[in-house]
Each structure stands twice: as structure tokens, then as C-alpha cells.
Amino acid sequence: MRRVVVTGMAGLTALGDAWPEIRARMDRGETGLRYMHEWDRLEDLNTRVGGAIDNFDHLTAYHRKKTRSMGRVGVLSVFAAEKALTQAGLIDSPVLRNGRTGVSCGSSFGATEPVQDFANFIATGKAGGLNATSYLRMMSHTTAVNIGIAFSLTGRVITTSSACTSGSQGIGYAFEAIRSGYADVMLAGGAEQLCPTMAIVFDTLFATSTRNNDPSSASRPFDRSRDGLVIGEGSGILVLEDIDHALERGAVPLAELVAFTTNCDGMHITNPNAETQAFAMRAALESAGISRNDVGFISGHGTATEAGDIAETRATAEIYGNKVPFHSLKGHFGHSLGACGAIEAWLAIEMMRDGFLPPTANLTEVDPRCADLDYVIGSSRKIDVEHFVSNNCAFGGINTSLVFRRI
């Protein structure tokens, strides 16, 4: 099996799109969550908090002709891919068009605005809002194909639309494609745009935060006083590459991806299962050929929901015990669904390289029903680690675990 390294990485979050800015804001205790005045007209929506990226205008990011097939989610993914390719030194490279460079990327859904136009057509019989690009913006594989077209990729396309594991599966399947020799380079990750339809999905499950008068502290992973998740948006893209291919062209590897596992609970479509989550975590360690003592920190899923937090922490404790630093980024950005696994992998690599591990935002008192873990609370830590693990899970009982190593 070939070794797979990261040669470029980038993303967009509610705290910024560059690591120095994101780190500084985390150090100041800031979160990217705010009251969503745009949702006030939606009287049946209980939550009014979101992790919006207010400083990014997707309508002006590129020339209109280039974005005809993209909604906001498509633009978010292409923008992150462009920055990642630039860091990797691959913008306009013939490597992109040699049939050995592909894309593995996903989202929970495509752009949601065209859905209303299709619904109006069914309700009224009039197609006034629809055009030739409506479906292209809405389709669940819009992120992957728009990245492929934007950068003239001619390798394989792997589309992941698995809710909250879309981004981590995008990275994992790209890893498998390179390791098995089907590709030399893959753009991998996920994206999601903020939409109240996604908020009401969790609202109907009584799983959203209604801390509307205190939005910055509304997302509280693992905390005793949490009352639900906060929906966010963003994108994260990694350039994964065969290490020999990278070194031959003079690229500088940023980290090595050494293991990926994914599995299914096979039990309940929305309630997570600690036993099968632990199975995925254990399998990732075995695939990486390391023990839990080799892991420097764990980037947890941490949705700030009761069932999710309890199951995840119990699974983590079973595999890692209580000596490995454990944190989640969703207190800072909210839950960006199909983007979260990719954003968390990108930023965890930055943390490993920088020797900086931020606390879980808004975590002040751990829920006693959560397992005994080394939660990073209150202040950041200096770290010097060789490996870290990034775990995610999703509706459908889908679990993922990624293991990265320092280069």
C-alpha cells in the first residue's frame, strides 16, 4: 500500500478562513455563533442561533459565468479547493488533467434554494423559478462535480452525501483511492451552506439549542447545561497525494494520513450506538499500527446533543481510556454537517503542526453521564504529538475515524 500525505489544505468557517485568524479568535474565547434575524419570520422554528459565515459573499467570489451551476455550498467547496491547491503548488498544473487526479467530496444536501422552486412547480404547476441549472445547484453531488469542473480534473469522482460524515468519508475514500493505486492526487473534504431547513430537521427532534438570548454560548458540547446543537456552515478541502509523487515534484508534506475506518451501527437511524462507534475507533488504531498511547489528542464529534455526546464519550473511553486529550470544535462553529469532518481534520492538522490545542468552547462542567475523559476545558494546551485521531458520526448510524501522523 502507498503512503498518503497532505500537501495542501484550506477551508471556510464562521471564525475565518485562515489558521492564524482562527487560532487568535479561539485564544480570545470567541465563537462564530450569532442570533439569526433572518429566521425570525419562521414562526415554527424554535432555534434562532446559527454559525453563519457573514464575511463571505458567494455571489461575488467568482465571475457569474463560472458559478451558474453552483449554489452557495458549491462556491464554498470550490473556494476552499482553490486555496488548498494553491498551497499544494498545483494550480494550473498538468497533473490535474492527467487522469490520475480526482475529487472525493460531499455535503448533506446541495443548495436548498432551488428546492423551493421545484416545490412551487408541484404546488402551482408553474415553473417560473426553474432553469437549466436548478438541479445542478441542488443535487447532492454538486460539491464534487463543481470542484472537478472548476479545476479540469479528469480522474475519478467519489461523491459522499452521508450527512455529518460527508467530509470525513470524502477524505477517507480519497485516501483509499490513492493508497490502492487508483489515483496519485485527490481533492477531498466536504461543504455545507447554512439553511433553516437544516435547522428544523433537528428542531423536530428536539435537538437544537434554544439559547437564543445568548447565542455565542449556545453550542456546548459535553456540557451539563447544553440544550442542543447549533447549525453552522463552512467547507474544508485537503489535497491528498501519494508521498513519492509529492516528493518527486518538490511538494512539502504537511501531515500523513495513516488510517481510515467507517462502519454502520445497523440499529437505529438517528440514535447513535457506543459499541459500533468503538469498533470503528479500534479498527482505525489497528489499521494505523499504533496503540492508544501513541495518540496525542482526539478531535471528537461533539454535537452538544444528549444522546450523541453520551454515546461518543463512552465509546471513546472504551478505546482510549481517560489519558488522551479530548476536544470538539463545534462549540466554536456550530455543527456544519457535511463540512464538519473536513474542517475538523484541517484544523487538527494545523493544531498538531502549531503545538496548540484549544479548549472545547462553552464546556465548563462535563455532564456526569458522559464518560471519564481528559476533556480540554477552560484554556488551551501546548502539545507535541506524533498522531491524532478525528472521529465523526452521522444519521443512519454511520461512523468514521481518521488517524493522522506528523511529518
Describe the structure in your own words.
It is globular, with a radius of gyration of 20 Å. The mean pLDDT is 97. The two termini are 18 Å apart. The strands form 3 sheets. The chain has an 11-stranded mixed β-sheet with strand order 5-4-6-8-1-9-16-15-10-11-13, with helices on both faces. The chain contains 12 helices and 16 strands. Helix 9 crosses helix 10 (306-320). It is α/β, with parallel strands linked by helices.
Structural features:
eleven-stranded mixed sheet, three-stranded mixed sheet, 32% helix
Brief sketch in words of this structure:
Helix content is 32%, strand content 21%. It has helices spanning 19-27, 72-88, 113-124, 134-138, 142-150, 166-179, 196-203, 243-248, 274-288, 306-320, 330-333, 340-354; strands at 4-12, 34-35, 49-51, 101-106, 157-160, 185-192, 231-232, 234-242, 255-264, 295-299, 325-327, 356-357, 374-375, 381-382, 387-394, 398-406.
What is the share of helical residues? 25-40%
Report the β-strand fraction as a percent range.
15-25%
Residue-averaged pLDDT, rounded?
97
Shape: globular
Sequence stretches where pLDDT stays below 50 over 5 or more residues: none
Oligomer: single chain
Amino-to-carboxy terminus distance: 18 Å
Supply Rg: 20 Å
Main sheet: strands, sense, barrel: 11 strands, mixed
Secondary-structure element sequence? EHEEHEHHHEHEHEEHEHEHEHHEEEEE
The overall strand count is 16
Structural class: alpha/beta
Strand order of the largest sheet: 5-4-6-8-1-9-16-15-10-11-13
The count of helical stretches stands at 12
